[in-house]
Protein backbone atom coordinates (compact mmCIF):
# COMPACT_ATOMS: atom_id res chain seq x y z
CA UNK A 1 0.00 0.00 0.00
CA UNK A 2 1.26 3.49 -0.86
CA UNK A 3 2.35 5.69 2.02
CA UNK A 4 2.44 9.45 1.49
CA UNK A 5 4.69 11.83 3.42
CA UNK A 6 4.38 15.61 3.31
CA UNK A 7 7.73 17.30 2.68
CA UNK A 8 8.00 20.49 4.72
CA UNK A 9 11.36 21.81 3.55
CA UNK A 10 13.02 21.53 6.95
CA UNK A 11 16.74 21.99 7.52
CA UNK A 12 16.94 18.46 8.85
CA UNK A 13 16.27 15.09 7.27
CA UNK A 14 12.60 14.15 6.96
CA UNK A 15 11.69 10.48 7.27
CA UNK A 16 9.94 8.95 4.25
CA UNK A 17 7.66 6.06 5.15
CA UNK A 18 9.39 2.91 6.35
CA UNK A 19 12.69 1.27 5.51
CA UNK A 20 15.09 3.84 6.94
CA UNK A 21 14.91 6.33 4.05
CA UNK A 22 14.90 10.08 4.60
CA UNK A 23 15.17 13.25 2.54
CA UNK A 24 17.15 16.40 3.33
CA UNK A 25 15.69 19.15 1.13
CA UNK A 26 15.74 22.56 2.85
CA UNK A 27 13.15 24.89 1.32
CA UNK A 28 11.52 22.17 -0.82
CA UNK A 29 7.87 21.34 -0.26
CA UNK A 30 5.70 18.61 -1.69
CA UNK A 31 5.06 14.91 -1.23
CA UNK A 32 6.87 11.60 -1.24
CA UNK A 33 4.84 8.44 -1.87
CA UNK A 34 6.42 5.13 -0.98
CA UNK A 35 4.98 2.20 -2.94
CA UNK A 36 5.72 -1.49 -2.90
CA UNK A 37 9.15 -2.15 -4.40
CA UNK A 38 7.92 -4.96 -6.60
CA UNK A 39 4.79 -3.30 -7.97
CA UNK A 40 5.04 -2.09 -11.52
CA UNK A 41 2.27 0.50 -11.50
CA UNK A 42 1.34 2.52 -14.55
CA UNK A 43 3.76 3.70 -17.21
CA UNK A 44 5.49 7.02 -16.62
CA UNK A 45 6.74 8.62 -13.43
CA UNK A 46 3.78 7.22 -11.50
CA UNK A 47 5.08 3.70 -12.10
CA UNK A 48 8.15 1.91 -13.40
CA UNK A 49 9.25 2.98 -16.85
CA UNK A 50 11.59 -0.03 -16.80
CA UNK A 51 11.05 -3.59 -15.48
CA UNK A 52 13.79 -3.06 -12.92
CA UNK A 53 12.45 -5.37 -10.21
CA UNK A 54 12.49 -8.40 -12.52
CA UNK A 55 15.94 -7.56 -13.86
CA UNK A 56 17.34 -7.04 -10.35
CA UNK A 57 16.37 -10.57 -9.31
CA UNK A 58 18.34 -12.03 -12.22
CA UNK A 59 21.29 -9.83 -11.30
CA UNK A 60 21.30 -11.01 -7.66
CA UNK A 61 20.06 -7.62 -6.46
CA UNK A 62 16.81 -6.30 -5.06
CA UNK A 63 14.77 -3.09 -5.34
CA UNK A 64 14.39 -2.21 -1.68
CA UNK A 65 12.24 0.91 -2.13
CA UNK A 66 10.31 2.85 -4.75
CA UNK A 67 9.40 6.48 -4.16
CA UNK A 68 7.35 8.92 -6.20
CA UNK A 69 8.53 12.45 -5.43
CA UNK A 70 6.76 15.71 -6.23
CA UNK A 71 8.93 18.55 -4.93
CA UNK A 72 8.51 22.29 -5.31
CA UNK A 73 11.97 23.91 -5.04
CA UNK A 74 12.35 27.20 -3.21
CA UNK A 75 12.31 30.37 -5.28
CA UNK A 76 15.77 31.59 -6.19
CA UNK A 77 16.61 35.27 -6.09
CA UNK A 78 17.32 36.73 -9.51
CA UNK A 79 21.04 37.36 -10.01
CA UNK A 80 22.47 40.82 -10.38
CA UNK A 81 23.04 41.98 -13.94
CA UNK A 82 25.87 39.99 -15.50
CA UNK A 83 25.96 37.42 -12.68
CA UNK A 84 24.92 33.80 -12.79
CA UNK A 85 21.90 32.49 -10.90
CA UNK A 86 22.45 30.15 -7.97
CA UNK A 87 19.89 27.31 -8.06
CA UNK A 88 18.77 25.63 -4.89
CA UNK A 89 20.95 22.83 -3.58
CA UNK A 90 19.77 19.43 -4.78
CA UNK A 91 17.72 17.28 -2.44
CA UNK A 92 19.73 14.53 -0.72
CA UNK A 93 18.25 11.07 -0.20
CA UNK A 94 19.67 9.09 2.72
CA UNK A 95 19.33 5.32 2.98
CA UNK A 96 20.01 3.41 6.19
CA UNK A 97 22.31 0.62 5.05
CA UNK A 98 22.54 -2.99 6.13
CA UNK A 99 25.87 -4.66 6.79
CA UNK A 100 27.15 -6.60 3.81
CA UNK A 101 25.18 -4.61 1.25
CA UNK A 102 26.00 -1.89 -1.26
CA UNK A 103 23.46 0.52 -2.72
CA UNK A 104 22.67 2.55 -5.84
CA UNK A 105 19.71 4.63 -6.98
CA UNK A 106 17.98 4.84 -10.35
CA UNK A 107 16.33 8.24 -10.68
CA UNK A 108 13.79 8.90 -13.46
CA UNK A 109 12.46 12.42 -13.96
CA UNK A 110 9.13 13.56 -15.37
CA UNK A 111 10.46 13.55 -18.95
CA UNK A 112 11.47 9.91 -18.56
CA UNK A 113 15.20 10.64 -18.29
CA UNK A 114 16.93 8.04 -16.11
CA UNK A 115 20.18 8.61 -14.21
CA UNK A 116 22.16 6.14 -12.09
CA UNK A 117 23.34 7.57 -8.76
CA UNK A 118 26.02 6.19 -6.46
CA UNK A 119 26.78 7.14 -2.83
CA UNK A 120 27.94 10.73 -2.51
CA UNK A 121 30.60 12.25 -0.30
CA UNK A 122 29.39 12.18 3.27
CA UNK A 123 28.07 8.62 3.08
CA UNK A 124 28.96 6.39 6.02
CA UNK A 125 28.94 2.69 6.80
CA UNK A 126 25.49 3.20 8.36
CA UNK A 127 23.94 5.53 5.79
CA UNK A 128 24.34 5.98 2.03
CA UNK A 129 23.63 9.47 0.69
CA UNK A 130 22.48 10.23 -2.87
CA UNK A 131 22.24 13.72 -4.34
CA UNK A 132 19.20 13.82 -6.61
CA UNK A 133 19.54 15.71 -9.92
CA UNK A 134 18.85 19.42 -9.24
CA UNK A 135 15.99 21.32 -10.88
CA UNK A 136 16.53 24.19 -13.29
CA UNK A 137 14.78 27.59 -12.94
CA UNK A 138 12.06 27.99 -15.57
CA UNK A 139 11.06 31.64 -15.41
CA UNK A 140 10.37 34.76 -13.29
CA UNK A 141 8.01 34.82 -10.37
CA UNK A 142 4.54 36.12 -11.16
CA UNK A 143 4.18 38.40 -8.14
CA UNK A 144 6.30 41.22 -9.49
CA UNK A 145 9.26 40.48 -7.23
CA UNK A 146 12.73 39.72 -8.49
CA UNK A 147 13.32 36.01 -8.51
CA UNK A 148 13.03 32.79 -10.45
CA UNK A 149 10.72 29.83 -9.98
CA UNK A 150 11.08 26.19 -10.85
CA UNK A 151 8.18 23.94 -11.66
CA UNK A 152 7.40 20.96 -9.44
CA UNK A 153 9.99 18.21 -9.73
CA UNK A 154 8.26 14.89 -10.29
CA UNK A 155 10.41 11.82 -10.28
CA UNK A 156 10.53 8.12 -9.56
CA UNK A 157 13.35 6.97 -7.28
CA UNK A 158 14.29 3.30 -6.98
CA UNK A 159 16.81 2.14 -4.39
CA UNK A 160 18.72 -1.02 -5.35
CA UNK A 161 20.84 -3.14 -3.00
CA UNK A 162 23.03 -6.21 -3.39
CA UNK A 163 25.22 -8.39 -1.22
CA UNK A 164 28.84 -7.28 -1.05
CA UNK A 165 30.40 -9.94 1.18
CA UNK A 166 31.40 -12.29 -1.68
CA UNK A 167 32.91 -9.39 -3.64
CA UNK A 168 35.34 -7.98 -1.09
CA UNK A 169 38.80 -7.74 -2.61
CA UNK A 170 37.63 -9.14 -5.94
CA UNK A 171 38.56 -7.47 -9.24
CA UNK A 172 35.94 -6.23 -11.69
CA UNK A 173 36.71 -9.04 -14.13
CA UNK A 174 36.13 -11.69 -11.48
CA UNK A 175 32.81 -10.13 -10.44
CA UNK A 176 31.64 -9.95 -14.05
CA UNK A 177 32.93 -13.45 -14.86
CA UNK A 178 31.03 -14.92 -11.91
CA UNK A 179 27.76 -13.33 -13.02
CA UNK A 180 28.24 -13.94 -16.74
CA UNK A 181 29.25 -17.54 -16.14
CA UNK A 182 25.82 -18.04 -14.58
CA UNK A 183 23.63 -15.67 -16.64
CA UNK A 184 25.57 -15.06 -19.88
CA UNK A 185 27.58 -18.23 -20.55
CA UNK A 186 29.21 -19.11 -23.85
CA UNK A 187 26.95 -20.91 -26.28
CA UNK A 188 26.72 -21.73 -29.96
CA UNK A 189 23.19 -22.24 -31.20
CA UNK A 190 21.44 -23.07 -34.42
CA UNK A 191 18.71 -20.52 -35.12
CA UNK A 192 15.34 -21.81 -36.20
CA UNK A 193 11.88 -20.42 -36.92
CA UNK A 194 10.83 -17.32 -34.95
CA UNK A 195 14.35 -17.04 -33.53
CA UNK A 196 14.26 -20.35 -31.65
CA UNK A 197 17.63 -21.78 -30.57
CA UNK A 198 18.77 -25.39 -30.56
CA UNK A 199 21.99 -27.38 -30.55
CA UNK A 200 23.63 -27.30 -34.02
CA UNK A 201 22.84 -30.36 -36.14
CA UNK A 202 26.22 -30.61 -37.82
CA UNK A 203 25.42 -33.88 -39.58
CA UNK A 204 22.69 -32.11 -41.53
CA UNK A 205 25.00 -29.32 -42.70
CA UNK A 206 25.26 -29.20 -46.49
CA UNK A 207 27.45 -27.27 -48.91
CA UNK A 208 26.88 -23.55 -48.82
CA UNK A 209 27.58 -20.50 -46.68
CA UNK A 210 26.75 -20.29 -42.96
CA UNK A 211 25.25 -17.19 -41.35
CA UNK A 212 26.64 -16.30 -37.91
CA UNK A 213 24.96 -13.79 -35.57
CA UNK A 214 27.09 -12.04 -32.92
CA UNK A 215 25.35 -9.87 -30.31
CA UNK A 216 26.72 -6.87 -28.40
CA UNK A 217 27.37 -5.80 -24.80
CA UNK A 218 24.92 -6.90 -22.06
CA UNK A 219 22.90 -8.90 -24.57
CA UNK A 220 21.95 -12.38 -25.79
CA UNK A 221 21.21 -13.73 -29.31
CA UNK A 222 17.42 -13.54 -28.82
CA UNK A 223 17.47 -10.04 -27.33
CA UNK A 224 20.30 -8.55 -29.39
CA UNK A 225 18.49 -9.25 -32.67
CA UNK A 226 14.90 -8.95 -31.41
CA UNK A 227 12.60 -7.51 -34.01
CA UNK A 228 14.52 -9.26 -36.80
CA UNK A 229 15.16 -12.91 -35.88
CA UNK A 230 11.52 -13.28 -34.88
CA UNK A 231 10.22 -11.72 -38.11
CA UNK A 232 9.27 -12.98 -41.58
CA UNK A 233 12.17 -10.93 -42.96
CA UNK A 234 14.61 -13.16 -41.08
CA UNK A 235 12.75 -16.34 -42.00
CA UNK A 236 13.30 -15.45 -45.66
CA UNK A 237 17.04 -14.97 -45.07
CA UNK A 238 17.31 -18.20 -43.07
CA UNK A 239 15.72 -20.03 -46.00
CA UNK A 240 18.51 -18.76 -48.24
CA UNK A 241 21.01 -20.46 -45.92
CA UNK A 242 18.95 -23.67 -45.81
CA UNK A 243 18.96 -23.61 -42.03
CA UNK A 244 22.72 -23.04 -41.71
CA UNK A 245 22.28 -20.16 -39.25
CA UNK A 246 24.25 -19.95 -36.01
CA UNK A 247 24.18 -17.52 -33.10
CA UNK A 248 27.14 -16.98 -30.76
CA UNK A 249 26.21 -16.31 -27.13
CA UNK A 250 29.19 -14.91 -25.27
CA UNK A 251 30.21 -12.93 -22.18
CA UNK A 252 30.75 -9.29 -23.15
CA UNK A 253 32.18 -7.78 -19.95
CA UNK A 254 34.64 -10.28 -18.49
CA UNK A 255 36.00 -11.60 -21.81
CA UNK A 256 37.78 -9.90 -24.71
CA UNK A 257 36.82 -10.38 -28.39
CA UNK A 258 39.86 -12.66 -28.68
CA UNK A 259 38.55 -14.78 -25.80
CA UNK A 260 35.14 -14.97 -27.51
CA UNK A 261 36.67 -16.23 -30.77
CA UNK A 262 38.97 -18.66 -28.96
CA UNK A 263 35.88 -20.31 -27.50
CA UNK A 264 33.96 -20.21 -30.80
CA UNK A 265 36.76 -21.95 -32.69
CA UNK A 266 36.73 -24.80 -30.20
CA UNK A 267 33.04 -25.40 -31.03
CA UNK A 268 33.08 -25.12 -34.81
CA UNK A 269 33.62 -28.26 -36.87
CA UNK A 270 36.42 -28.37 -39.44
CA UNK A 271 36.03 -25.85 -42.27
CA UNK A 272 35.14 -28.65 -44.69
CA UNK A 273 32.28 -29.76 -42.45
CA UNK A 274 30.79 -26.26 -42.53
CA UNK A 275 30.45 -26.64 -46.29
CA UNK A 276 31.25 -23.06 -47.19
CA UNK A 277 32.31 -19.62 -45.97
CA UNK A 278 30.81 -17.75 -43.03
CA UNK A 279 28.71 -14.60 -43.40
CA UNK A 280 28.24 -12.51 -40.25
CA UNK A 281 25.62 -10.10 -38.95
CA UNK A 282 26.89 -8.43 -35.78
CA UNK A 283 25.76 -5.68 -33.44
CA UNK A 284 27.74 -3.21 -31.32
CA UNK A 285 30.77 -4.83 -29.65
CA UNK A 286 29.94 -7.94 -31.69
CA UNK A 287 31.43 -6.04 -34.63
CA UNK A 288 34.84 -6.22 -32.96
CA UNK A 289 34.37 -9.95 -32.35
CA UNK A 290 33.62 -10.32 -36.07
CA UNK A 291 36.79 -8.44 -36.98
CA UNK A 292 38.81 -10.84 -34.84
CA UNK A 293 37.32 -13.83 -36.66
CA UNK A 294 37.89 -12.22 -40.08
CA UNK A 295 41.54 -11.53 -39.17
CA UNK A 296 42.12 -15.15 -38.22
CA UNK A 297 40.36 -16.32 -41.37
CA UNK A 298 42.65 -14.14 -43.50
CA UNK A 299 45.64 -15.77 -41.80
CA UNK A 300 44.27 -19.26 -42.48
CA UNK A 301 43.55 -19.84 -38.79
CA UNK A 302 39.75 -20.00 -39.06
CA UNK A 303 37.06 -20.84 -41.63
CA UNK A 304 36.85 -18.21 -44.37
CA UNK A 305 34.63 -15.17 -43.81
CA UNK A 306 32.91 -13.90 -46.96
CA UNK A 307 30.73 -11.03 -45.72
CA UNK A 308 30.33 -9.05 -42.52
CA UNK A 309 27.32 -6.80 -41.90
CA UNK A 310 28.18 -4.56 -38.96
CA UNK A 311 25.35 -2.77 -37.15
CA UNK A 312 26.26 0.02 -34.72
CA UNK A 313 29.81 -1.30 -34.35
CA UNK A 314 32.35 0.76 -32.34
CA UNK A 315 35.17 0.35 -34.87
CA UNK A 316 36.90 3.42 -33.45
CA UNK A 317 35.71 2.63 -29.94
CA UNK A 318 33.44 4.75 -27.77
CA UNK A 319 34.73 7.11 -25.06
CA UNK A 320 32.03 5.74 -22.76
CA UNK A 321 33.93 2.44 -22.50
CA UNK A 322 36.65 4.09 -20.42
CA UNK A 323 36.23 3.23 -16.75
CA UNK A 324 36.02 6.94 -15.83
CA UNK A 325 32.83 7.19 -17.88
CA UNK A 326 31.06 3.96 -16.98
CA UNK A 327 28.24 5.84 -15.24
CA UNK A 328 27.47 7.76 -18.45
CA UNK A 329 27.66 4.44 -20.32
CA UNK A 330 25.02 3.09 -17.95
CA UNK A 331 22.80 6.16 -18.37
CA UNK A 332 23.02 6.05 -22.18
CA UNK A 333 22.01 2.38 -22.38
CA UNK A 334 19.28 2.77 -19.76
CA UNK A 335 17.65 5.68 -21.57
CA UNK A 336 17.73 3.81 -24.88
CA UNK A 337 15.83 0.91 -23.32
CA UNK A 338 12.59 2.87 -23.05
CA UNK A 339 12.07 2.23 -26.79
CA UNK A 340 12.01 -1.59 -26.45
CA UNK A 341 9.50 -4.19 -25.21
CA UNK A 342 9.83 -5.26 -21.57
CA UNK A 343 10.90 -8.77 -22.58
CA UNK A 344 13.96 -7.31 -24.30
CA UNK A 345 14.58 -4.52 -21.81
CA UNK A 346 14.69 -6.87 -18.82
CA UNK A 347 17.56 -8.92 -20.23
CA UNK A 348 19.69 -5.87 -21.07
CA UNK A 349 18.94 -4.37 -17.64
CA UNK A 350 20.30 -7.53 -16.02
CA UNK A 351 23.65 -6.85 -17.68
CA UNK A 352 23.54 -3.18 -16.79
CA UNK A 353 22.93 -4.10 -13.15
CA UNK A 354 26.04 -6.26 -13.20
CA UNK A 355 28.01 -3.13 -14.10
CA UNK A 356 26.08 -1.12 -11.48
CA UNK A 357 27.24 -3.61 -8.84
CA UNK A 358 30.84 -3.33 -10.00
CA UNK A 359 30.81 0.48 -9.88
CA UNK A 360 28.90 0.54 -6.59
CA UNK A 361 31.34 -1.87 -5.01
CA UNK A 362 34.18 0.56 -5.71
CA UNK A 363 35.97 -1.45 -8.39
CA UNK A 364 37.13 1.05 -10.99
CA UNK A 365 38.80 -0.94 -13.76
CA UNK A 366 39.50 -4.33 -15.27
CA UNK A 367 36.77 -5.36 -17.71
CA UNK A 368 38.34 -6.71 -20.93
CA UNK A 369 35.00 -6.64 -22.72
CA UNK A 370 34.64 -2.88 -22.26
CA UNK A 371 38.36 -2.18 -22.64
CA UNK A 372 38.08 -3.57 -26.18
CA UNK A 373 35.94 -0.51 -27.01
CA UNK A 374 38.14 2.14 -25.36
CA UNK A 375 39.32 4.44 -28.19
CA UNK A 376 42.54 5.11 -26.28
CA UNK A 377 43.14 1.44 -25.55
CA UNK A 378 45.53 -0.99 -27.20
CA UNK A 379 42.70 -3.19 -28.50
CA UNK A 380 41.22 -0.51 -30.78
CA UNK A 381 44.64 0.68 -31.94
CA UNK A 382 45.72 -2.83 -32.87
CA UNK A 383 42.74 -3.27 -35.21
CA UNK A 384 43.93 -0.60 -37.64
CA UNK A 385 46.73 -2.55 -39.30
CA UNK A 386 45.26 -6.04 -39.28
CA UNK A 387 44.42 -7.78 -42.56
CA UNK A 388 40.95 -9.19 -43.11
CA UNK A 389 41.74 -10.69 -46.52
CA UNK A 390 38.95 -10.67 -49.12
CA UNK A 391 36.09 -10.29 -46.66
CA UNK A 392 33.46 -7.83 -47.89
CA UNK A 393 32.15 -5.33 -45.34
CA UNK A 394 28.76 -3.67 -45.05
CA UNK A 395 27.92 -1.18 -42.32
CA UNK A 396 24.89 0.36 -40.62
CA UNK A 397 25.06 3.32 -38.26
CA UNK A 398 22.59 5.81 -36.85
CA UNK A 399 22.77 9.47 -36.01
CA UNK A 400 20.11 9.67 -33.34
CA UNK A 401 18.42 13.09 -33.32
CA UNK A 402 15.80 13.32 -30.57
CA UNK A 403 13.64 16.31 -29.83
CA UNK A 404 15.34 18.50 -27.23
CA UNK A 405 12.64 17.90 -24.62
CA UNK A 406 12.62 14.10 -24.77
CA UNK A 407 14.24 11.68 -22.35
CA UNK A 408 16.82 10.56 -24.89
CA UNK A 409 17.62 14.16 -25.75
CA UNK A 410 19.22 14.37 -22.31
CA UNK A 411 22.14 12.15 -23.28
CA UNK A 412 22.88 14.37 -26.26
CA UNK A 413 23.34 17.24 -23.82
CA UNK A 414 25.09 15.39 -21.02
CA UNK A 415 28.53 16.33 -22.34
CA UNK A 416 27.96 19.89 -21.20
CA UNK A 417 27.63 18.60 -17.64
CA UNK A 418 30.80 16.49 -17.68
CA UNK A 419 34.17 18.19 -17.53
CA UNK A 420 36.09 15.48 -19.38
CA UNK A 421 36.90 16.86 -22.84
CA UNK A 422 36.73 13.44 -24.49
CA UNK A 423 33.16 12.96 -23.36
CA UNK A 424 32.25 16.47 -24.49
CA UNK A 425 33.74 15.75 -27.92
CA UNK A 426 31.86 12.46 -28.17
CA UNK A 427 28.48 13.99 -27.53
CA UNK A 428 29.25 16.89 -29.86
CA UNK A 429 29.64 14.37 -32.70
CA UNK A 430 26.94 12.40 -34.45
CA UNK A 431 26.19 9.22 -32.49
CA UNK A 432 23.56 6.55 -31.91
CA UNK A 433 23.51 7.32 -28.16
CA UNK A 434 26.40 4.96 -27.37
CA UNK A 435 28.74 4.77 -30.39
CA UNK A 436 30.03 7.59 -32.64
CA UNK A 437 28.29 7.29 -36.00
CA UNK A 438 31.38 7.74 -38.17
CA UNK A 439 33.16 4.85 -36.46
CA UNK A 440 30.29 2.52 -37.39
CA UNK A 441 31.37 2.82 -41.02
CA UNK A 442 35.13 2.31 -40.62
CA UNK A 443 35.76 -1.44 -40.22
CA UNK A 444 39.33 -1.13 -41.56
CA UNK A 445 38.86 -1.95 -45.23
CA UNK A 446 36.47 0.23 -47.22
CA UNK A 447 32.85 -0.81 -46.82
CA UNK A 448 31.13 -2.06 -49.96
CA UNK A 449 27.97 -0.22 -48.96
CA UNK A 450 26.73 1.62 -45.88
CA UNK A 451 23.31 2.51 -44.51
CA UNK A 452 23.24 5.80 -42.61
CA UNK A 453 20.11 6.44 -40.56
CA UNK A 454 19.21 9.84 -39.13
CA UNK A 455 16.26 10.72 -36.94
CA UNK A 456 14.43 9.86 -33.75
CA UNK A 457 13.41 6.29 -34.58
CA UNK A 458 16.70 4.39 -34.36
CA UNK A 459 19.24 4.34 -31.53
CA UNK A 460 21.96 1.96 -30.40
CA UNK A 461 19.71 -0.71 -28.92
CA UNK A 462 16.84 -0.87 -31.41
CA UNK A 463 18.46 -1.13 -34.86
CA UNK A 464 16.82 -4.49 -35.51
CA UNK A 465 13.35 -3.04 -34.98
CA UNK A 466 13.85 -1.08 -38.22
CA UNK A 467 12.35 -2.40 -41.45
CA UNK A 468 14.95 -0.29 -43.27
CA UNK A 469 17.66 -2.37 -41.60
CA UNK A 470 15.79 -5.58 -42.45
CA UNK A 471 15.66 -4.59 -46.12
CA UNK A 472 19.39 -3.84 -46.30
CA UNK A 473 20.35 -7.11 -44.66
CA UNK A 474 18.15 -8.96 -47.15
CA UNK A 475 19.92 -7.16 -50.00
CA UNK A 476 23.45 -7.62 -48.69
CA UNK A 477 23.06 -11.27 -47.80
CA UNK A 478 21.62 -12.20 -51.22
Short note summarizing the structure:
With 478 residues, the chain is α+β, with helices and mostly antiparallel strands. The protein has helices at 52-58, 172-183, 221-224, 232-240, 257-267, 271-274, 286-298, 326-336, 342-360, 368-371, 378-383, 409-413, 421-428, 437-440, 467-476, and strands at 3-7, 14-15, 21-24, 29-35, 61-72, 92-96, 101-109, 114-117, 127-131, 139-140, 148-149, 153-163, 187-191, 197-198, 210-214, 245-249, 278-283, 305-311, 392-400, 449-455.
Provide key terms for this protein.
elongated; single chain; 478 residues; 20 strands; six-stranded antiparallel beta sheet; alpha+beta; Rossmann fold; 2 domains
Radius of gyration: 24 Å
CATH superfamily name of the largest domain?
Alpha/Beta hydrolase fold, catalytic domain
Low-confidence parts:
38-46, 141-149, 414-420
Biggest sheet descriptor: 8 strands, mixed
Question: Can you put this structure into words, describing what you see?
Answer:
There is one protein chain. The protein is an alpha+beta fold and 478 residues long. It has 2 domains: 3-163, no CATH class; 172-476, Rossmann fold (3-Layer(aba) Sandwich). It contains 15 helices and 20 strands. The strands form 4 sheets. The chain has an 8-stranded mixed beta sheet, with helices on both faces. A 6-stranded antiparallel beta sheet has the order 1-4-5-12-7-8, with helices on one face. α1 (52-58) packs across α9 and α8 runs antiparallel to α9. The longest helix has 19 residues, at 342-360. The protein starts with a strand and ends with a helix. Residues 38-46, 141-149 and 414-420 have low confidence and may be disordered.
Amino acid sequence: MAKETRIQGLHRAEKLGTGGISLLAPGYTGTAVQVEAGSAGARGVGGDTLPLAEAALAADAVVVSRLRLALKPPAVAAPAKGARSSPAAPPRLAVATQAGRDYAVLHTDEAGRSTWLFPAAGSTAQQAAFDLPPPAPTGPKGDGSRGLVTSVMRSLVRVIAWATAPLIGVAAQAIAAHWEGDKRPNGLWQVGAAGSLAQPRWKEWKAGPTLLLIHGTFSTPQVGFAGWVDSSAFDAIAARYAGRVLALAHPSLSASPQDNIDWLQQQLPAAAALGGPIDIVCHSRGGLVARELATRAAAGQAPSVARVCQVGAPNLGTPLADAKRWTVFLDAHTNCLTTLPDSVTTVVLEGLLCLVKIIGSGVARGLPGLAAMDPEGDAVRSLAGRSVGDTRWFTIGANYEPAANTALGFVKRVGAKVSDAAVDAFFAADNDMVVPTDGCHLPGPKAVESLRITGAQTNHVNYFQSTEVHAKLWQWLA
